[in-house]
DNA sequence: TTGTACGCGTTATCAG
DNA sequence: CTGATAACGCGTACAA
């Protein structure tokens, strides 16, 4: 790898001059600029980001911490982040936390050790010292923190919509799957749904789950129908769980949506491909990723930020696990 | 952030001594070690990886280049890489290439600018200068390169198995979906299947596709059944395409697997959840990621490598888009 | 308009 | 066993 020194020698100038043309700063004569540029071309020189980073105490790297890239929801998020960052010449160091505080802390630490200029984290523990003591901007994505920059979708509203639509379509004994207690968006969804149902005086059961793993989801789905065999509507905490419920319902010989309606959350690719295809509350995952990246960049560049918190809209995506509502005049 | 200098001052020693205890190199008196360690603890000091990287001209970072993390096959790969790397204290800079040579080159360049010690790339263009001129080890993952370190699964054998099983289950007018021309594993699968079918003198059609996007897959699926309405067996280039074919077949009122059998490739989560669930040739994606990471680490540490090329086995995963073969005595 | 020299935080060499 | 100090590649005062 050629260094700035090589370029300087090759062009017959000093490193300072090379640096000037590189960074387009200060005055440099047109002729010498040409020489330098020629040298850069010949040597195929590209600046060493590490040296830059050391000197400036900041890199062009940002850290992205996700629970598990293997969960279909997160790649969308990640891709949104990546695209926006790439367009702005930032690169990404990525890590999977498995919702494990220790791993999380470890990653955040190596992020700072590598001089990242900011981080995007999807964490359930935004209020730990890990983040509080950080002196780089952090945007919380999906999993929210009060009064901290964050991008998330309106889970509560999503829950409300789900409940509302399900009732409108005739379910009367609804079961809400509550999702992991420590996962805030899951709780928001639950709350929203529960509120509506309570308001309308409609009976509902609650099933608590503790992870998003598909195999475990199957177990809970079984329990659900054992405990509440008469459930005629299930509001799941996400599409993975909804899928497990759908499979179990079908396995039990129930007709979906006639015997039991199901509404998921997220709208991952899978959802539209199931048979019957899954009605769900869609989160704009890709756009959330982009928004988070965009917000982080603003934070990094210290621009004035109006809204440090961005809530994205959620949309009812009607498919075949819910009944059609009659079109009256 | 505390620096080594701060620690030195705090402990009343020189930076050299701190460096020694940090790196456990050379002699250092037990007492002074204690002092230094105490200082490190109090100041919560962690070494600046950037400075280290600058001096040593190598970091603890590796680059991971994937076509598109949004394609369900790649997160598995990525996770395998990440887990293995994490266990060995390497961190990952990730990039999506979209199979775009320019983007690819750009990423590789920023990888080296950041002093990565190695890279894992899933690329269709391993033979470009981008990689040839690189003086860090690169492991090619999934997409293979001759005579270069690589990890891939046996696509040819997979194709053979698919053809064999499909014939054994009675299909007589088979259509092979060939997958993008520039994607080597797709061509291997095609070749394997075509070989078997030719050998056995069985008629087959070929449909060529040019991407793995799901929406486009739908179009090809339509074309397939328009052109070859009597097809009674489809060997798809991957599970995404197979899913599109399944949907189209069902839409046309065909019975699967009675009228038409379908075999996919990869075994992504989706496949087991479809109705009917998808018979497929499974690739051990996660393990492939881990193997690639492991191989790269060996390359980095310059250990003796016996097999620079690792071919992973592929397994026939029988589900419900193929008929059951009779169990004779 | 250009060059010299220092510092970013570390490691390694070489005296002591 | 420990401490100065040069060097890694770059950017920027400051001088010329």
- Can you count the helices of chain A? 13
Q: What's the story with the biggest beta sheet of chain A?
A: 6 strands, parallel
CATH topology of the largest domain in chain A: Rossmann fold
Named CATH architecture of the largest domain in chain A: 3-Layer(aba) Sandwich
Radius of gyration of chain A, whole Å: 26 Å
Low-confidence stretches of chain A: none
List the helices and strands and how they pair.
2 copies of one chain form a homodimer.
Chain A: H1 4-11, H2 15-23, H3 30-43, H4 49-56, E1 61-66, H5 73-87, E2 91-96, H6 101-113, E3 118-121, H7 129-132, E4 138-141, E5 150-153, H8 155-168, E6 174-177, H9 184-199, E7 204-207, H10 214-227, E8 233-235, H11 239-251, E9 261-266, H12 269-273, E10 279-282, H13 285-300, E11 309-312, E12 315-317
Parallel strand pairs in A: 1-2, 1-3, 3-4, 4-5, 5-11, 6-7, 6-8, 8-9, 9-10
Antiparallel strand pairs in A: 10-12
Helix pairs in contact in A: 1-2, 1-3, 5-13, 8-9, 10-11
Chain A binds a DNA duplex (16 and 16 nucleotides) through residues 3-5, 13-17, 19-20, 22-23, 25-29, 32, 47-48, 50-57.
């Amino acid at each position: 790898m050629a260094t700035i020194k090589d370029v300087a020698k090759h062009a017959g100038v000093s490193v300072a001059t090379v640096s000037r043309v590189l960074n387009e700063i200060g005055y440099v004569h047109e002729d010498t600029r040409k020489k330098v540029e020629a040298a850069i071309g010949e040597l195929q020189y590209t600046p060493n980001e590490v040296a830059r980073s050391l000197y400036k105490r900041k890199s062009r790297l940002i850290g992205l911490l996700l629970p598990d890239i293997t969960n279909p929801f997160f790649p969308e998020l990640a891709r949104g982040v990546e695209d926006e960052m790439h367009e702005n010449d930032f690169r990404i160091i990525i890590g999977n936390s498995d919702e494990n505080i220790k791993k999380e802390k470890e990653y955040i630490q190596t992020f700072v050790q590598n001089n990242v200029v900011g981080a995007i984290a999807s964490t359930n523990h935004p209020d730990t010292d890990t983040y509080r003591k950080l002196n780089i901007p952090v945007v919380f994505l999906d999993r929210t923190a009060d009064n901290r920059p964050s991008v998330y979708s309106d889970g509560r509203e999503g829950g409300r919509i789900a409940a509302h639509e399900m009732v409108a379509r005739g379910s009367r004994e609804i079961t809400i799957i509550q999702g992991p207690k420590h996962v805030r968006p899951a709780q928001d969804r639950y709350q929203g749904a529960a509120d509506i149902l309570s308001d309308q005086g409609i009976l509902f059961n609650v099933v608590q789950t503790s992870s998003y793993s598909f195999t475990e989801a199957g177990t809970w789905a079984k329990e659900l129908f054992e405990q509440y065999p008469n459930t005629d509507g299930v509001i799941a905490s996400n599409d993975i769980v909804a899928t497990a419920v759908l499979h179990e319902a079908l396995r039990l010989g129930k007709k979906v949506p006639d015997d039991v309606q199901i509404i998921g959350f997220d709208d991952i690719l899978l959802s539209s491909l199931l048979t019957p295809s899954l009605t769900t509350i869609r989160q704009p995952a890709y756009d959330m990723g982009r928004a988070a990246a965009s917000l982080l960049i603003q934070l990094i560049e210290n621009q004035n930020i109006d809204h440090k918190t961005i809530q994205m809209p959620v949309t009812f995506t009607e498919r075949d696990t819910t009944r059609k509502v009659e079109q009256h005049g």
